[in-house]
Automatic annotation (TrEMBL):
This is 5-demethoxyubiquinone hydroxylase, mitochondrial. Fe cation 1 binds at E79, E111, H114, E224. It is an enzyme of class 1 (oxidoreductase). It is found in: Mitochondrion inner membrane. GO terms for cellular component: extrinsic component of mitochondrial inner membrane. SUPFAM superfamilies: Ferritin-like (SSF47240). It comes from Meyerozyma guilliermondii (strain ATCC 6260 / CBS 566 / DSM 6381 / JCM 1539 / NBRC 10279 / NRRL Y-324).
Length: 263
């Protein structure tokens, strides 16, 4: 049988080794926690590191490019139409109803701005305009003048119909831009390395071109909805026959959008 001091020494060794294990475990944990921190820091550094100038974006697919061209073509035609509708309304109503003059002028000015913006985009992106541009001009001016001749309420009902359709149309475009342009690859400009979305700050994950287009469309959508509110405030619903008038104009607008996207 082993002497008692043997078991005492054995016991001492056991306690020491357990303490050592604990120490190593703690150190191990500390080092793995340190490496975890390092990974987090690295990610944070990577996220900070990238901005618009040191990344490059992969090319869009053919369908994405075609969609953007269609957006510019149809929106340019639509804003041209809106510009001419207000031109027609202003021509008939401004002198007859002085209190409406600044209201119509404000909405018309915004449409001129929308129209000019899409004209510029069309030139920059070399998108061919709708082939039916002369028809859009004449048709829109005709709608503006004829509704205004029926009465100021009918002109406002026309604005309600047009802005309802255009507001919905812009929202539809925004949905596609948010959902169908997330797969465009982003690369480190220097190394050419493909970057993960998680490593990029949010505003760098999509190209400035797409970001600007989205913010432009949402700004214009808000302006159109403001025009809709203005028209309701100025007795659009008192137009007779309100429903027939607005539904027919909505139908015409939807038809024009469908055509301008294609022709
Ligand atoms: Fe507009
Ligand atoms: Fe508008």
């Amino acid at each position: 049988m082993a002497p008692a001091w043997h078991s005492m020494i054995y016991h001492e060794i056991l306690i020491h080794s357990q303490a050592m294990d604990k120490l190593l475990l703690r150190r191990g944990f500390a080092s793995s926690s340190r490496s975890l921190h390092k990974t987090v820091d690295k990610k944070a550094a990577a996220a900070k590191k990238y901005h618009g100038d040191n990344v490059k974006y992969g090319s869009l697919s053919r369908a994405q490019r075609a969609f953007l061209d269609r957006v510019v073509r149809v929106d340019q035609a639509g804003e041209l139409g809106a510009d001419y509708i207000y031109f027609g309304q202003y021509t008939v109503l401004a002198s007859k109803y002085p209190h409406l003059k600044p209201v119509l002028q404000h909405m018309w000015d915004q449409e001129i701005h929308h129209h000019n913006t899409f004209n510029k985009l069309q030139t920059e992106r070399r998108v061919r305009p709708s082939l039916l541009t002369p028809l859009w001009k004449a048709g829109a001016f005709g709608i503006g003048v004829s509704t205004a001749l029926i009465g100021k309420e009918a002109a406002m009902a026309c604005t309600v119909a047009v802005e309802t359709v255009i507001g919905g149309h812009y929202n539809q475009q925004l949905r596609v831009l948010m959902n169908q342009f997330n797969d465009v690859p982003v690369y480190d400009k220097e190394t050419g390395e493909k970057l993960k979305e998680a490593d990029l700050p949010r505003d760098v994950a999509t190209s400035s071109e797409l970001r600007e287009l989205k913010s432009l469309i949402s700004q214009f959508r808000d302006d159109e909805l403001e025009h809709l509110d203005t028209a309701i405030e100025h007795d659009a619903e008192k137009a007779v026959p309100y429903l027939l008038l607005t539904e027919v104009i909505k139908l015409v607008c939807r038809g024009a959008i469908w055509t301008a996207e294609r022709v």
